[in-house]
C-alpha cells in the first residue's frame, strides 16, 4: 500500500466507521454464533496471494461482524459503557501514526509530562 492508497483507504475506513456507528441500532447487539464459528469460515492455510482491500472489508462484514458484541449499540445494557468517542478514535489514529512507546523519557519527553498533567486537572479547584 502506497501513501495514495493509504489516504484513499483511510477516508473509506472513516466512512465505514461512521456508517457502522450511525446504523448500529440495526445490528443484533449480541452475536448469534457458536464458539469456534470462525474455524469454518477462515481457510486453514494462509493464501498464497493477498486479498484485495475490498475482499477484506467484505470478510469483515461476512465473517467478523456476525461474531461481534456491539458495545456502542443503544440496546447494549451490560458490563460498562464503551469508552470510544469520535475524538478518541481520531487520537488513536494519531497515536498509532506517531508510534512512540513512552517507556522512557528519552523516547518522548512530552509523553512523560503528559502522563502527569491530566491528574492535575482534577485536583485543581
TrEMBL record:
<comment type="subunit">
    <text>Homodimer.</text>
</comment>
<dbReference type="GO" id="GO:0030170">
    <property type="term" value="F:pyridoxal phosphate binding"/>
</dbReference>
<dbReference type="GO" id="GO:0042427">
    <property type="term" value="P:serotonin biosynthetic process"/>
</dbReference>
<dbReference type="GO" id="GO:0005737">
    <property type="term" value="C:cytoplasm"/>
</dbReference>
<protein>
    <recommendedName>
        <fullName>Aromatic-L-amino-acid decarboxylase</fullName>
        <ecNumber>4.1.1.28</ecNumber>
    </recommendedName>
</protein>
<dbReference type="InterPro" id="IPR002129">
    <property type="entry name" value="PyrdxlP-dep_de-COase"/>
</dbReference>
<keyword id="KW-0663">Pyridoxal phosphate</keyword>
<keyword id="KW-0127">Catecholamine biosynthesis</keyword>
<dbReference type="Pfam" id="PF00282">
    <property type="entry name" value="Pyridoxal_deC"/>
</dbReference>
<dbReference type="InterPro" id="IPR010977">
    <property type="entry name" value="Aromatic_deC"/>
</dbReference>
<dbReference type="InterPro" id="IPR015424">
    <property type="entry name" value="PyrdxlP-dep_Trfase"/>
</dbReference>
<dbReference type="GO" id="GO:0006520">
    <property type="term" value="P:amino acid metabolic process"/>
</dbReference>
<dbReference type="GO" id="GO:0019752">
    <property type="term" value="P:carboxylic acid metabolic process"/>
</dbReference>
<dbReference type="GO" id="GO:0004058">
    <property type="term" value="F:aromatic-L-amino-acid decarboxylase activity"/>
</dbReference>
<keyword id="KW-0210">Decarboxylase</keyword>
<comment type="pathway">
    <text>Catecholamine biosynthesis; dopamine biosynthesis; dopamine from L-tyrosine: step 2/2.</text>
</comment>
<keyword id="KW-0456">Lyase</keyword>
<dbReference type="GO" id="GO:0042423">
    <property type="term" value="P:catecholamine biosynthetic process"/>
</dbReference>
Amino acid at each position: 500500500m502506497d501513501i495514495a492508497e493509504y489516504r484513499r483507504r483511510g477516508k473509506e475506513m472513516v466512512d465505514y466507521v461512521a456508517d457502522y456507528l450511525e446504523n448500529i441500532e440495526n445490528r443484533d447487539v449480541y452475536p448469534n454464533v457458536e464458539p469456534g464459528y470462525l474455524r469454518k469460515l477462515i481457510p486453514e492455510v494462509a493464501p498464497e496471494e493477498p486479498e484485495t482491500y475490498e475482499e477484506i472489508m467484505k470478510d469483515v462484514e461476512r465473517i467478523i461482524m456476525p461474531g461481534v458484541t456491539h458495545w456502542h449499540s443503544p440496546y447494549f445494557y451490560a458490563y460498562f459503557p464503551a469508552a470510544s468517542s469520535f475524538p478518541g478514535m481520531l487520537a488513536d489514529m494519531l497515536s498509532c501514526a506517531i508510534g512512540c512507546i513512552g517507556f522512557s523519557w528519552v523516547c518522548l519527553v512530552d509523553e512523560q509530562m503528559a502522563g502527569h498533567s491530566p491528574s492535575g486537572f482534577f485536583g485543581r479547584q
